[in-house]
Amino acid sequence: MRPDTLQIALEETARRFSKLWHVLNHGTDGPHSPETRRMLVDRVRDALDRGQARLADTDGQFIANSFALDALVHQGPTTEVHRARHRDLGTFHAIKMIRPDCAGDAGARDLLLREAAIGLTVRHGNVASTQTVIRLEDGRPALVMEWLEHRLSTALHTRQLSAADVIAVITAILSGLDAIHAVGFVHCDLSPVNLLMAGKNLSQIKIADFGIALGTGHRHGELDLSFAGQPNFASPEQKAGQPLDGRSDLYSAGLLLSLLLRHCSDPSDKIEALKAISIQLSRKMPADRPQHAKAALMMLANLGKSDPIGAY
């Protein structure tokens, strides 16, 4: 654009903005109240957001008049997760929604709303926070969750762990499980992919994704799921489709602890005790495992004592 043309465009924009600002502040009967002015400004902002999406050929990128979809970070069989930025606050969030091609899948919708209800029930520093549920323009529900950039699965490929790192991670996992179990749910999907953190501090690991969580004493068959979970981390009773309780998650935690130890080169004298705890957590029979996450946390607290296993 030539400089003189640009100047004309800027002057015209300034003139129109001045007129718009006058309309936003004054009606036919005098100045608007502050509440009316804020409402009108919000409506103009919404219109600008929609116009920006159309001009950028990204129609639909703004959802609920509040979130700009920034990147697709995960796609599953019926759902997808986007990183999103809040229009007014500038904060990042994870938004999980039904995939457009599965919009008519009533089962997927029910599972997502069920996941939202469970996620909103659990509040703990080692559990990823579900913040709210919104409805997209086409009626699909979507979960708004805290944005956690890093996965444990990635961290395990980029760093060696110390014994202190291993203890920090497994303590965070068991603490999160204790909170989940305390409100009557079994997570059922523990794996490095579903363990997230905002930074690089392993003690701040958070358990995410309640997509296949169950109420204690229930089985996945009740949700018309023949099998749900990560085969490499699911408990024997979960694979068999049996009713589950918190000990099923402890089995998965034991396998995770074993995985962490394989990434640990620390000669610490605590390693053997950690291996023993891993074995105890992942016993085939639920009755042979610790009875609950608190007991497993006590075993960790007793590391270095003569009989750490005896604490459960």
TrEMBL record:
Biological source species: Neorhizobium lilium
**Has the keyword Repeat been applied to this entry?**
no
Q: Which PANTHER family match?
A: SERINE/THREONINE-PROTEIN KINASE (PTHR24347)
Q: Care to name a GO molecular-function term for this sequence?
A: protein serine/threonine kinase activity
Q: CDD domains annotated for this entry?
A: STKc_PknB_like
Please name the PROSITE patterns in this protein's record.
PROTEIN_KINASE_DOM, PROTEIN_KINASE_TYR
Pfam families given for it?
A: Pkinase (PF00069)
Q: Which UniProt keywords apply?
A: Kinase, Serine/threonine-protein kinase, Transferase
Note the Gene3D superfamilies from the entry: Transferase(Phosphotransferase) domain 1
Name of the protein in its database record: Serine/threonine protein kinase
| Protein kinase domain location | 67-312
Keyword Ion transport carried by entry: no
